[in-house]
Amino acid sequence: MAVESTPRWGRGIQVLELEGGRIKLTEEPTISVQSSQDIPDKFSDKAHKKAYYRYYLRNAYVKPSKVESPGDWLLDLKVPAIEKLLPAHLCERPLDFFSDRSIDLRTAQKCLELHVAKGLVASQDKGLQLKRFRACRGGVIALNWLLIHYDDADLSDNTGFLKPLIHCLVAEKPTDLIWHWLKVEHIPTALSTQPWKERVAWRSAVLRFLVESQVYWDQDDKGINLALETLSHAWSIRFADESRRGDMVLPKTLTSVWVMKQLLLKGASATADPNLYDDFIFTLRFWIKDPVNREHAVSKMMLRHPSKASAQPTLDFLRHYCAKDPRPSFLCDLFNSWAGYGYLVNCAQWLNEAGDTAAACWVLDVARAEMPEYFSMRARFNDTDARPLLGAAVRPLQDLPPVGSERWDRRKAYIDSGGLK
Question: I need a labelling partner for 177 at 20 to 30 A (CA). Which of 32, 40, 269, 382 fits?
């Protein structure tokens, strides 16, 4: 006799459907309901509706997004592994490489990574690490070497070298050198035959690594303010030929995305300066071109504002765009994602904690109407290891489309920190 692989739940007992009859088991189930009709997927009374509100306002869990913290890449630096890739004399004194006249960015990257890794092995205390870096001045030495061989350096294809370089320079404190370098009109000749995006990609990487290093090395847990100041300064720079998409362009979108993730998903908004936070919100208009996406981003930022947090922008966003016919494609995609689930749960819970229970329940009513697969009583009863509906994706992730550029793939390994989740 064939047995169904998935057991069904009966009232107070577990039953297995067999061909020709049913066999009752004595084991009590963890959750028991009579049948699928008894699951209050549609509210049959006020008690069910009250239970729905209570669950999503108090107990619903929004799975944290996987966002790297500043300096997480340092955990991958292992001295023995790097030394296997270098000659013996460079294993002892990795900075000696930069007295060479040849240009080899891959070896230069490994030498700087070994220099950084040895500092981590010597001490986990950031104060002692800073003293070591400032004594050795490895970042300044490496930058001087790079400028000597500048025309032969394909920086956009070797962003792995830029990451430890900027890490060392920020530790050594000559950040003015980084800004001067970013504003130099001349780009490496090695990049002159590449498409426009490739010619300027290295500047985007330098700015991105600069703000991460500033947050990492800050000793007062307020490094996010240094990052916000840096990004604000970057937005204020105007190059003469920027409107003609010349090479004197400083792309800032990648850095802005990274900062936004730290503010919203890593709790950095709690220590952010309110004025700098407002300045960052103002810059959203420059890099989020879709107006619906931009309003959504502003509403999320306001939920985490360090001095005037508010859910009103979220309520305005929902009321305005849910009434649209046809609805914007961004809203349709949002209501079909776990990002949308987290957005609505966070808003409802914030309103409830602020004492506006009526508005919180309204948000949950919208959630239930627009995202029944995510917001339902059925999901609570069926939340098992076999079919998790809360806190994990219901449907398998689609295969990402292949990227058509090997250069882009290599750079992505060092820069990309993923989409807003």
Answer: 269
